[in-house]
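Technical annex B. To support the medicinal chemistry partners, we prepared a structural model of the target in complex with zinc ion, based solely on the information shown next.
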Amino acid sequence: MQLLVRPKPFFDESLESYLLRLAEANFIESYRLLSGAVKDWLLEQDHEASGAFPLELDTVNIWHARQNSSLRVRAFSLLEKLTDNEDLPLLALSLSHSGADFCGGYRALARGSTHIPRCFIRKSVIPVCPLCLAENPYIPQAWHYLTYSGCIKHGVYLIYECPSCGGSLSYIENEMIRNCRCGYDLSMADTTQADQKTLLLSQLASCEEVESPNSLGGISSISIRNAALLYFCITNSVDLNSEAEVEESLRLAIEFYESWPSLYVENFWEKFNKANRKLIKTYNKTPVAFAAGPYISAASLIKGMRIKENFILIELQDLLRDLVAKNPKSRIPNPGDMLLTIIEAAVLLQTTHEQIYLLHEKGYLKSAYRIQMRQKVSPYESIFYLRQVIELAKTRMPPDFGAVITYLPHW
Ligand SMILES: [Zn+2]
Ligand SMILES: [Zn+2]
């Protein structure tokens, strides 16, 4: 099998967009014909890898592989070397599963070194910038992200529907980059000037260097910004399955981080005041999450990241220290005596679950109830006192290197 023409990919192009252009440049009528030919060719080279190559464009990207994506990576590697000269850039353009753990257990995808929560990926509608399409007909990967709804090059909103037939846009479903399925040339569509918040959000989602007084602009890692945006959504009970709700909340997140940390601090105290009014059991039998929800468990942002980069955790630790200081130990239980899970204790102490078990075994952390010898406590169970964890955290300085603090040696 030969592909004679190999268009140059754009650095920010999506894999699906490139495959469509590859087919078109070689006068192959549809993506299906291209993928069928690729599969037949792969069958001769590597039987297993051939089975892992999907025929449909909407499932071709590596992260769609159901079980093990390594076979699909192998199929793409073979395909990259299809001809003798320059390799095809397929793996560099693909979006794959990421091992990064966002906000305490949210799954993520990665392209190159940038990680993005899976719930920020658009599922069906892929909006476009008509002005970009008029200049270069290709789809940037960023148009797949809910964090990107205004074009930073042209300062206009992306369009989600065809102005001619009103249908939702998806170049993957239509297998056409520049045209709607009704034939309308999308580069002709009218555009509207986007507001500053939308454009800032798009910039934060796609450029490392962003000049903005917004606290997210001070972070150069797009992955960490994505984690901070997800943290806002989680702690504001946003329905992550609703794309419209997530998009709307992301704009609110920009405002939230603009005034950082004042709104965060305000919300924090409000939550504890509210908890005081609706308390059912005494404080020393009540989980901190009863007041603060996922504030602590999600504050790891990206598991294993350095504390210096985690501006949310630093602020939260300060607030909890304040809470404990304002509520000294007394005969009547108070908010300082509320309970943390192992997960939350590990986030606040920036250490592993094993270290928390060890700290308990050696008597540094007392449990709220007796644990039988060798009994493993569920990491979700509220069992350690906030006061003790905060006091223990004060005794350790953040590490100079690495991200995990070791409190006790394993042997
Ligand atoms: Zn544009
Ligand atoms: Zn149309």
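Notes passed to the chemistry partners:
The chain has a mean pLDDT of 91.
Residues 262-394 form one domain.
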